[in-house]
Amino acid sequence: MPARIGGGGNVDRGGARPPGGVRAVRLGPIGTVAAIAGVVMVAIAAIATLGLATRLLRGRARRERIRGDGRPATSRNRERSKAVVVEALPLVLGLALALVAATAPAPARAGLLVPMDDKQTDHLKAYGLAYWTLARGEKIEWLLNYRGGSFLMPENAETQREANLRGVAFESMNAGAEAAMRAEIADNNMESVALEKAPRVAVYIPPNTPPWDDAVTLALEYADIPYSKLWDAEVMSGDLAKYDWLHLHHEDFTAQHGKFFVAYHNFPWYQEEERVQKAMATQLGFAKVTQEKAAVAIAIRDFIGRGGFMFGMCSATDTYDIALAAQGVDIAESVYDGDPCDPLANRKLDFAKDLAFKNYRLELDPFIYKFSDIDVTQEASLRGPNAVFTLFDFSAKNDPVPTMLVQDHVNAVPEFLGQTTGFHRAKLKSNVLVLGEVEGTDEVKYLHGQYGRGTFTYLGGHDPEDFQHMVGDPATDLSKYRHSPGYRLILNNVLFPAAEKKKQRT
């Protein structure tokens, strides 16, 4: 029987929807009231300024003496005052308008709204449009919790043309509609976050080609977001400093080749995997692959500590933490590294070095397809393909960081399996923030944490649109899943580093 990496199920997983038209946003009641208030302010300012001018001119007339024509100064100056006031009226009105402009709030500019609710024709490519706009040097806004986490971009012909080419729905907003939208955001659990610069994206991926796809590279390529590939040699030479965001491919950082020995050790791809891993360890000066992977894990942790953003899925979550905790401990049996593992390995784990997990036990049997008791794959398999995990509802104004990571047009996301499907809640460190969970169980599907100046995010499972992706299965065609809520979580993480930094209060 083929080993599981991550088909299908009976749950609607965000398949293709019919394209929708562009919907114009009308000026709501708040915008109408604001417009009327502006007119009233202009009138009041004009009347006040005109009255002030009249009083000044009357005072001046009283101070003048009687002229030689024999008429009283008061009569003569009254006529002059009227004439001067009439002549000054245009100037007075101009000053009143200037006063209103100086004291009133700046009017909302027109913008291009990319909705991320059910009106969006391609949710995934919308992220690519946002990245493209940032890469051109323009700033955009991520409207957290507003219509599914929409984007507000500068309105220009180039952006509209690019959106049309990508099949992304957008709506032109006039100033009044934008003002009404901002009022709605201010009064609800919503927030506007500035996205300032396109992040530099890297994917950690080996040079060989194992018989499975990677959900993140599929998402990046479908959304047309550029990325670079790197692996152990680049990590150890310091190339991570060139990037803001790193995705860990479905790598086994315990150097046990995914524990695929029983099912696949005679397959050419598995034997190539062994050769490539051993050659890299030798090239970098390590006697064993386990030692080399531990060094790579430390270099990645240092990247996070300096302010990097790391996103891991499937087995690159728990095996990464295991590699950190098991530094200097032999945890691989002879079928993987040529000598027996340390029988006391579980006692020697240093959980203080982990990012996310604690108090777990390794599965040291080389023939059991499991790394540790962190993983919930067995329990998730029994729940079946109709299970879902729910996203936590954070305070957008107080906690914009986790709110960005859970932006979606649905709250319940279909479950999907992987070599590591999810995480037992009891194994999480206290500083880890849960983003998504399977309600009624102890499965945490999606988590986030901080290390040093940077952050890490883990999402369990292999492919959000294939409940049980198997070794050798074809790659998922994302053009059939343009509205995938699971793939949106991946792309949230890609844009996350572009956000203007705000302190998280949770």
Give the percentage of residues in beta strands.
5-15%
* Overall SS class: alpha+beta
Individual helix count: 15
CATH class of the largest domain: Alpha Beta
Low-confidence stretches: 1-36, 60-77, 81-86, 100-108
The biggest sheet, with number of strands, parallel, antiparallel or mixed sense and barrel status, is: 10 strands, mixed
Helix content: 25-40%
CATH topology of the largest domain: Rossmann fold
Give the integer mean of the pLDDT values.
Answer: 84
Element-level helix/strand string? HHEHEEHEHEEHEHEHHHEHHHEHEEEEEH
Which CATH-level-2 architecture of the largest domain?
Answer: 3-Layer(aba) Sandwich
**Total domains:** 3
Q: What Rg, in angstroms, do the CA atoms define?
A: 31 Å
CATH superfamily descriptor of the largest domain: Class I glutamine amidotransferase (GATase) domain
The end-to-end distance, rounded to whole angstroms, is 45 Å
Number of strands: 15
Task: Tell me the overall shape.
Answer: globular
Structural account:
The protein is α+β, with helices and mostly antiparallel strands and 506 residues long. It folds into 3 domains: 29-103, no CATH class; 111-195; 201-498, 3-Layer(aba) Sandwich (Rossmann fold), CATH 3.40.50.880. Helix content is 38%, strand content 13%. The strands form 2 sheets. Strands 6, 7, 8, 9, 10, 11, 12, 13, 14 and 15 form a 10-stranded mixed sheet that branches. A hairpin with a 5-residue loop joins strand 2 (140-144) and strand 3. Helix 1 (29-63) runs antiparallel to helix 2 (73-103) and helix 3 packs antiparallel against helix 4 (157-166). The two termini are 45 Å apart. Mean pLDDT is 84; it is low at 1-36, 60-77, 81-86 and 100-108.
